[in-house]
């Protein structure tokens, strides 16, 4: 009972942080079609740079974040991450006034930088604050906070940014240059007040974190952490199961972002109005919520983390094929159903990859957070593919991704480990 009490408060605080992650991350699905119209982008590939600018920050900043955390500790590091996110949100104000896409991308990169610091601290925190066998269950709880926030963010920003946008898009062709510019300026200005509010809330949350009862976990470099590290290991690179886990995270995040962030554009490519398609990301997140709830009640009581990952990988293969061979709303529904396939991948891969790292847990966690850059790379690959083979057939690129994750779930997570 005392052990349960010892991490109830930290779990609540980290759950609130994961809500912040979700709100900031899953609004990108709405911003992609929004920026394409407001900033007069020519192609879907350009608009997918929204995801790239956001997620590439994880690759660039995750490793430096581990050094920052060594200096600040978890609590101050989380507060700093929130402040950095607030600065990124403020960049949206001049970006909207100038209707400058590159400035918007800069703001997204800064927000992603703050999130990289937060993720580098919070994910290992959740994994090692309790028994490693049940880490996937705890991370699933965090995932619920994340995806509920994503649903809320999509609904709010879908209404603010894409309300009546179908009629606006049709009218733009008939407007003169001055009237068109005025209409687009009004559209761009819709995000100013929301992002000012977001910045204020993030700063207040940072202050609350500093004065909270959130404990700093003991450093992994202490004697206990060193004792759990294999004596022949001198670097995180010497753990093959970690390196394979990094690749698995890279591919998983890539397909997750594709399922959540490209689904609105995909719906539009099928001639579904944006007024309807703007809700599709919420469908993906709803399927993810179902998966997280299942994970909470089944891991590790009924199935292991590795088994859950294998099941999700097989579902990913099946749903990807069905996306391509079906049509219209049915195809969109199977793309959304990939949310179910993706749901337990992060909760399972992360603890499997850091298991047995001992004093290298923080460095290994930074590598795994860097792999979130898959969300920057794979959507761009898809954006290029859709120009060649079409938006529907382009999703076939997800098949090898799910097959590798299936390998990791069955064999990869054990590579290099002693019996």
Could you write a compact summary of the structure shown?
The chain is an all-alpha fold. The protein has helices spanning 2-26, 28-38, 44-47, 49-98, 101-128, 135-162, 165-172, 177-189, 192-210, 223-227, 240-261, 263-269, 274-277, 280-298, 305-325, 328-342, 345-354, 361-370, 374-389, 398-410. Helix 2 (28-38) packs antiparallel against helix 8 and helix 15 packs antiparallel against helix 20 (398-410).
Set out the fold topology.
Blueprint: H1 2-26, H2 28-38, H3 44-47, H4 49-98, H5 101-128, H6 135-162, H7 165-172, H8 177-189, H9 192-210, H10 223-227, H11 240-261, H12 263-269, H13 274-277, H14 280-298, H15 305-325, H16 328-342, H17 345-354, H18 361-370, H19 374-389, H20 398-410
Main location: membrane
Domain Major facilitator superfamily (MFS) profile: 10-419
Family: Belongs to the major facilitator superfamily. FHS transporter (TC 2.A.1.7) family.
